[in-house]
């Protein structure tokens, strides 16, 4: 179990000295890349009286990484969890995961069918292992140098002791196709094509496969 270490203002300034900004939003910087190739990811506390104040997203992030690896899913390796009062942020530090995001690899107009088929199979693998990744989108899936796929930005994941239900799988399809900044290649490839790839890889009894097909088809009415 990771417990946050306290980082003072001086330590924080030394940590991010000469760092590059990887991601920024209106409320501030979210992700730094250090000269050491370590990544610093920050989490803000949205409300004082919330569960995230007691159990911050940084700890969830570290825990989720450990649980993903235990289920055979490649992901980032957290080295440190911290809290810095001077910037009022929780954070994690991990090694940059080698590879490229599918968002960088896929064209918005003519997405690579082979890569889409790999994504469908990877998504099926997550679902079969009981992994419900609410933040699933093309920017959070990495194509690694060995050709496999892995996950980053893993704070928002639920783990089931059994495979996901048909309705949970259908809702995860919705996340993938509704992500505002990353869904265009998915839409260009087509919901029906992606659903076909997913179902062809599924190893299920006929009754379960029929139920899953109905759930995915119903969900896909918004995109076909």
Describe what this molecule looks like in 3D.
Strands 1-5-6-4-3-2 form a six-stranded mixed sheet. It has a three-stranded antiparallel sheet with strand order 7-9-10. The longest helix has 16 residues, at 113-128. The model has no long low-confidence stretch (mean pLDDT 91). It is of the alpha+beta class and 224 residues long. The radius of gyration is 19 Å and the shape is elongated. It has helices at 9-15, 51-54, 57-70, 102-105, 113-128, 166-178, 184-189, 191-201, 206-219; strands at residues 5-7, 20-25, 28-33, 38-44, 78-84, 89-95, 100-101, 131-133, 141-143, 149-151, 157-159. Helices cover 40% and strands 22% of the residues. Strand 5 and strand 6 (89-95) form a beta hairpin.
The number of distinct β-strands equals 11
Query: Main β-sheet: number of strands, strand sense, barrel status?
Result: 6 strands, mixed
Tertiary shape:
elongated
Unreliably modeled segments = none
User: Spatial order of the strands in the main sheet?
Assistant: 1-5-6-4-3-2
Q: Could you report the average pLDDT, rounded to the nearest whole number?
A: 91
Order of helices and strands: EHEEEHHEEEHHEEEEHHHH
Please tally the helical runs, counting DSSP H or I stretches of 4 or more residues.
Answer: 9
- N- to C-terminal separation? 44 Å
Fraction of residues in H or I helices = 25-40%
Radius of gyration: 19 Å
